[in-house]
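Problem 3 from the worked examples.
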Amino acid sequence: MAKPLVVITGASSGIGAAMARQFSQAGHPLLLLARRVDRTEALNLPDTLCRPVDVTDAQAFAEAIREAESVYGLADLLVNNAGVMLLGQLDTQDAAEWKRMFDVNVLGLLNGIQAVLADMIASGRGSILNISSIAGKKSFPNHAAYVGSKFAVSSITENLREEVADSSVRVMAIHPGAVDTELLGHTTRPDIIAGYEEWKTAMGGVLAADDIARAALFMYQQPQNVNIRDITIAATRQPA
């Protein structure tokens, strides 16, 4: 392939699907990972492998990457996009929701990093782009556990960036504000969902998934010696 392999998790909808379209249009072969493989296959993108991988399954994650690399060569970009947002108050929220968020948002991200990092260091190139959240930088009501998981993503990203800088591997993060995706639908409290929707309406609308995908492509397309470490992107009228 003229351009190197891009791996995207959580690629069945929202930001992940938008990134898949953007990187495919830019000429990259893709490995798209999502539990809903029918949704990734429906994108109908050329030079693309779609695999029904849960990022919490480290072995399946690594095996899918090795399979794609056997076809398209070493992964040059891993986008850790898979995420769960289960909003709630800590005094009443089901602890299973905390575990689900940390399993997917943090441990799933670490699984992906471990699957590609050694080869990137050995080759002296490659990029890892972690999709955090503006909630990885500041607090919001009913977000405590989610904020904790996203602060973990942000701090892991920066710590790893420092560790591998001398190897010329880039580690980057995007911190999106509110985006029009399925993410809010993960929350199980109707009153919290209603309040969030009112907040979105009050600011006159939120970002589209394509807004984040364009930022990701821009970050990646810089020369390897240029690392846009962090972008925070939100609707202009989003106050927090």
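Problem 4, a separate protein:
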Amino acid sequence: MELSTALGLGDRALVAFVGAGGKKTAMHRLATEGTEQGYGVGFTTTTQMPPPDLPLTVTNAERLPDALLEVEPPVAFASEWVADPERVDRKVRGFDPEPLTSVLDRGFVDWLLVKADGARRREFKAPGTDEPVVPDEATHVVPVASVHAVGEPLAEAVVHRPERVAAITDLSVGDTITPETIGTVLASPDGGLRHVPDTAVVTPVINKADTPDHQETARAVLEHALEETTRFTRGLVTSFDRDVCLPVESESS
């Protein structure tokens, strides 16, 4: 199943990605699928990101619409280069939500893909107090986590903000991460559902499920998340390296 089909994207979508363990990979997959389906796709962030493997336009908010007319989608766009970025050689800063919504509403792109938080290349995270920065007009929100976090200790090597995960799950930093740990965070208003607009379709994704064992573990994560909330009724088990995209439905759906 294509990711765009699994997420239920239509002719117009503003898709915000949050979490860790595959946001940019999922965004690239949607950019490819959308282009193949004839949609104009935009790729950006409300925080910071390394420049994606797409044509990149760097411009200010005032000139943003005109700048996008000068390029053919798919296109990545940002407001400025980041001086002395951490952990990578190059990084760009994105935009506040308001100009991004204008880009979509005025028809410059059909699908706008937004990286709405950072994860410092970890496999799993819980958001900080000032994130994620999800546009109020987001039609879809995709909380992401990597199945590779299961079985690892709740610590900085694997988890961004382990203390926040501990607070949500009543674990202690250093405890072993279980499928229930990730599922609880995904379903929490302080975790995967933080700052999600009421009208957005939420579809959690458990990524890097490269083997049958990983897929079973990822399914267990989603089954627990689905038991913890009624805010979403399905999730996806994915491995973008292996072209895996498997839906997991709530028993009540």
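Solution to problem 4. Residues 91 and 201 are 29 Å apart (CA to CA). The helical segments are 3-7, 23-36, 64-69, 97-105, 162-169, 179-186, 212-228.
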